[in-house]
Design brief:
Blueprint lengths: L6 H33 L3 E14 L2 E14 L3 E8 L3 E7 L4 E5 L4 E5 L5 H8 L10 H4 L10 E11 L2 E11 L8 E9 L5 E21 L2 E24 L17 E2 L3
Parallel strand pairs: 6-12
Antiparallel strand pairs: 1-2, 1-11, 2-3, 3-4, 4-5, 5-6, 7-8, 8-9, 9-10, 10-11
């Protein structure tokens, strides 16, 4: 037989439940406003930095990326991704042509322009660039809240020079760590409702990596599977909503030593 709660305790529990429900509703409302803010943009520009940290067998590896993004509805896009390991990758579509250039190989490829941002982003996957729950993802105007669960408000903080709401949610990756469950945390600017930071955490992800082994007195490489924890943290250093962008924002002057990659 259960003993009834005292009235004061019951009120405390009820208040906690109502507060949790209200915070969940507030988190949903904030994300809805974020979706609407990105969908309503006619142009956008940002610079950002991403840090990727991976843990395998208690060994930690970290690398960073610097990115620049420009976009103008409906079909103009420019993105550059730079790292110390792989140099700079430039991808753009300007209504006349689509260009992909890698500084490491000095090779470029041209193709017909993308019809819209979604088609442009899909084409980046072959170059190893993925977009998931970041500004480039939201600029494609996806269905609000689709794929997210357990949405929860986590308080407020400051990122660079902006006050932000913190919202956490669960999801299953379709791009960055395909098929793996993850936790995404959004840092949403309280005034413009655009992202200032986003993190994604994946645990127990199966990865395949080459390992040196010695057999019969000889060394060789074998591909083995490991469990890995991966953390992505992207900070939008600077963003502009609806900036004036001319055609030069979506062009790139190829180096003289660049050569074309034929199909």
């Amino acid at each position: 037989m259960k003993t009834p709660l005292p009235l004061a305790a019951f009120i405390t529990v009820l208040a906690a439940c109502l507060s949790s429900s209200a915070q969940s509703q507030d988190a949903n409302a904030i994300l809805q406003r974020m979706y609407a803010a990105y969908s309503g943009l006619t142009s956008y520009r940002q610079t950002a930095s991403t840090t990727v940290t991976q843990m395998i067998n208690n060994q930690r590896a970290t690398f960073g990326l610097a990115t620049e993004l420009r976009y103008q509805k409906p079909d103009r896009a420019y993105i550059s991704v730079t790292s110390t390991a792989s140099g700079t990758l430039i991808a753009l579509s300007n209504g006349r042509e689509r260009l992909l250039y890698r500084s490491l190989t000095r090779m470029y490829r041209k193709s017909p322009p993308a019809a819209n941002l979604k088609e442009f982003v899909a084409g980046l996957r072959s170059a190893g660039i993925g977009s998931e729950y970041d500004p480039l993802f939201f600029l494609q105007a996806p269905v609000p809240l689709q794929g997210l669960s357990g949405i929860a408000y986590q308080g407020k903080t400051r990122v660079n020079d902006g006050d932000c709401h913190i919202i956490r949610a669960n999801f299953r990756s379709n791009v960055v760590a395909k098929g793996s469950p993850g936790v995404v945390t959004f840092y949403v600017d309280q005034k413009q409702f655009l992202l200032r930071r986003v993190t994604m955490l994946f645990t127990n992800v199966t990865v395949t990596a080459p390992v040196r082994v010695r057999k019969n007195g000889r060394e060789s490489l074998e591909r083995r599977q490991f469990k890995s924890n991966i953390n992505y943290s992207t900070v939008i250093q600077r963003f502009e909503a609806n900036p004036a962008l001319d055609s030069s924002a979506f062009t790139y002057e190829l180096p003289k030593d660049a050569f074309e990659q034929k199909p």
